[in-house]
Design goal:
The complex is a heterodimer.
Chain A lengths: L3 E2 L5 E4 L4 E7 L6 E7 L6 E7 L2 E5 L2 E6 L4 E6 L8 E8 L10 E2 L3 E6 L1
Parallel strand pairs in A: 2-11
Antiparallel strand pairs in A: 1-3, 3-8, 4-5, 4-9, 6-7, 7-8, 9-10, 9-11
Chain B lengths: L3 E4 L2 E4 L5 E7 L5 E7 L6 E7 L2 E4 L7 E4 L5 E6 L8 E8 L10 E2 L3 E5 L1
Parallel strand pairs in B: 2-11
Antiparallel strand pairs in B: 1-3, 3-8, 4-5, 4-9, 5-6, 7-8, 9-10, 9-11
The chains are: A mainly beta, B mainly beta.
Chain lengths: ~110, ~120
């Protein structure tokens, strides 16, 4: 079993739809959870950052972490064509020291049509 | 704007011909990382520098080397590229400790093609 599982999609939705992206993981030591957005032929950019369990909201984006189920989600409300990208989940263990490797999911490719 | 710059954005090389990719940062971050990302796959950490301390991942092939001459610059050397090394190479930076240690800033990537 891979440490982080993410459905690669592709996921196609119409403009204005609510999008739900998910990752599951197996390592209970993970405490830091991130979502990165990667446009085609570009590097990933940080979208959301969550420590431990709970919800975090930023504009149209909401990140949820359920550590008991080892499941994290990213919700996008009122999706826009500009949201079309690959979304990568990433997570790491409890160390606050650099070099604790981020473990990435494979990414889910999202396409929002106008 | 503070950022991470990678050069070249696109590199074409022949099988076995050495390649060097560069990364520079204006964020003054302690840590610089090199990731390899193949098509439709998760980025895979190759190694990182914490200041001048080099940290190699256990499964990174010997074909891959890195240099960090100063805080701002880091290089990835691929000594004898094979067809399987064709990928996007991502440089990232991060802070040395604290909550920010887990937050990385990525460059736009260097896409390597091996003929």
């Amino acid at each position: 079993q891979k440490e982080v599982e993410q459905d690669p999609g592709p996921l196609s939705v119409p403009e204005g739809a609510i999008v739900s992206l998910n990752c599951t993981y197996s390592n209970s030591a993970f405490q830091y959870f991130m979502w990165y957005r990667q446009y085609s032929r570009k590097g990933p950019e940080l979208l959301m950052y969550t420590y431990s369990s709970g919800n975090k909201e930023d504009g149209r984006f909401t990140a949820q972490v359920d550590k008991s189920s080892k499941y994290i989600s990213l919700f996008i409300r009122d999706s826009q064509p500009s949201d079309s990208a690959t979304y990568l989940c990433a997570m790491s263990g409890g160390s606050r020291q650099a070099g604790t490797a981020l473990i990435f999911g494979k990414g889910t490719t999202l396409s929002v049509s106008s | 704007d503070a950022m991470v710059i990678q050069n070249p954005r696109y590199q074409v090389t022949q099988f076995g011909k050495p390649v060097t990719l560069s990364c520079s940062q204006t964020l003054n971050h302690n840590v610089m990382y090199w990731y390899q990302q193949k098509s439709s796959q998760a980025p895979k950490l190759l190694f990182h520098y914490y200041d001048k301390d080099f940290n190699n991942e256990a499964d990174t092939p010997d074909n891959f080397q890195s240099r960090r001459p100063n805080t701002s610059f880091c290089f990835l050397d691929i000594r004898s590229p094979g067809l399987g090394d064709a990928a996007m190479y991502l440089c990232a930076t991060g802070m040395g400790e604290g909550l920010g240690a887990n937050v990385l800033t990525f460059g736009a990537g260097s896409r390597l093609t091996v003929l």
